[in-house]
Give the backbone structure.
Amino acid sequence: MTAVAAGCVGLVLAALPHHLAIEASTTAATVQNGHVFSWSKDGSELAVLRVSDVAVLDAATLQTRRTLSLRALALGEHCFAAVVEHRNGVQVVGLGGAGSVLFGVEAGKDGGYSLADDCRHLSSCDGDSGAVSLFDGSSRIARIDPDPRIPGPNQVGEITADGRFIAWSFGHGGGGGTVFQEFARRRRFVRGTFGLGASIAPGGRIILDTGKKYYGYAASNDRPRLVAAPTGRTLHELPFPRAPSSAGGDLHARFSSDGRLLALGLDRRLMLFAPDSGEQLAEVKLPGEVRDFSFDRDASRLAVTTAAGITLVRILP
């Protein structure tokens, strides 16, 4: 393993008069292939999904504590577990210690998987039919077939952290979008189609519409906006650039688990917003292009993967 490179890679931002500042304080160059994170319940450890294993880091220093030989398909953002292939299905394996099997399900290995924060609810998207199954432990409790009115064969359904909603992402002709369905009602939760990578806040009150119609956040896409659910009414249009400084950059979005904060990343910029008001709260420039990020449980830190490695961003009140 490469040694951790510590030091300040961004400045504390105090210029925005909105009561928050953020500081990018530590970068680890060891896990630059990691794109998906999982935080331990107490926030002391951070797991990173890599090509052939899962690295568990000290969440304060980003030093590697242990490596688990798991070819993981997905990580649970806050349940500290991984979805791994196993015989005719998949298993959910805890990431504490040496790892222990929590439960297994019979599901296809070529679809998408999402774990809810309770570490019990697992969604599995069939790669052939596009149907999404919801499991409570080993028991399948619901199945939703893709809406035939949604164009395009490349449909993927991901469960939200609270286990209530599916975000259907689809692509066609180089473009695409996202719709939302509620598991309990098995129907579209909010009318309308949103941009690729759209996200719904915990509780389902607000949707972040990325405005992305095409892969790569090009100038032809719309500006990101916050939308009321389930009415689809625009609440706020966010002051975000229509095109990044480098061609082909992607817009990444994530709500905190309490719904209080929204983070947007594009190119080397990371920005924080208040979803209720649409106000920009803070911004920091990172050492490389943003690839993915995740809030910890209390929304005091963000782990960010960039082209330069992993950066820990502290949110200062």
Summary: The mean pLDDT is 78.
